[in-house]
# Entry
Amino acid sequence: MEQDKQTRGGSRKGKPNKVTTFSRLIITEMLSDYQASGRMEQDIEELEPKERLHIMTQLMAYVTPKPQAIDLNITTGPENNIEKKLAELATDNE
# Structure
């Protein structure tokens, strides 16, 4: 099936998209130039504190990972209790 996709002009799995790669490069260069000029810092300092915090929290999404929800099932009962689970984990690590 993968062979068919390639013979019909499709790209291989995992191959970067040229437009996305180019767009990211352009945006990165523009932001780098903006920051290097000192204008970015000036513009941020000129904002009202509320606006400045809003911008900073939005930018944080690009440099810090978002927490992911996890499902933890630790029901108790005769067949499934916490002590039993802890004992199993302890023996798995040995």
Notes: The two ends are 44 Å apart (CA to CA). The chain has one domain: 2-68. Residues 59 and 65 are 12 Å apart (CA to CA).
